[in-house]
Amino acid sequence: MAKRRIPGLSPNPMTNLIVTDIALRGAGRLARHFTEKTLLRTRYTKDDAEKVVEGRSMIQTLAAVAVARIATRSLPGAIIVGTGILGKTLLDRSKGKREARAEGEKQMRERMANAEK
């Protein structure tokens, strides 16, 4: 059986796999930041949108990564995460628009303050 080569920068296939992983994660992060900033610019200034995206704490980042990993690894995980998102949405809607909006605005201001530190 002939060995097949993994194309890449190095003759070592593991190095090529690591380089590819780093490149994909970097591109994913850039795409995520671009999308978040674009969505936020519909309501906030460009500077404020950047502050919100950059003001995410390490705990918030790790929590988002963990939840995304749970959701993408299995169907039960996707169901659990989807149910949680639906529950949070229903909870916000039950509070009323004014109260939910005020809570969200407060959280946004806190993130903007974190970015300035």
Quickly count the helices: 5
What composes the largest sheet? Answer: none
Distance between the termini: 58 Å
Radius of gyration: 20 Å
Multimerization state: single chain
- SSE sequence, one letter per element: HHHHH
How does the overall form come out from the CA principal axes? extended
Helical content, roughly?
Answer: over 70%
Q: Proportion of β residues? A: under 5%
Number of domains: 2
What structural category do the secondary elements indicate? mainly alpha
Poorly predicted runs are none
Mean pLDDT: 88
Report what the structure shows.
With 117 residues, the chain is an all-alpha fold. It has 2 domains: 12-54; 56-117, no CATH class. Helix content is 80%, strand content 0%. It contains 5 helices and no strands. The model has no long low-confidence stretch (mean pLDDT 88). Residues 92-117 are annotated as: Disordered.
Main attributes?
single chain, 117 residues, mainly alpha
Condensed summary:
Residues 92-117 are annotated as: Disordered. The chain is 80% helix and 0% strand.
Present the secondary structure layout:
Elements: H1 13-40, H2 46-54, H3 58-73, H4 75-95, H5 97-116
Helix pairs in contact: 1-2, 2-5, 3-4, 4-5
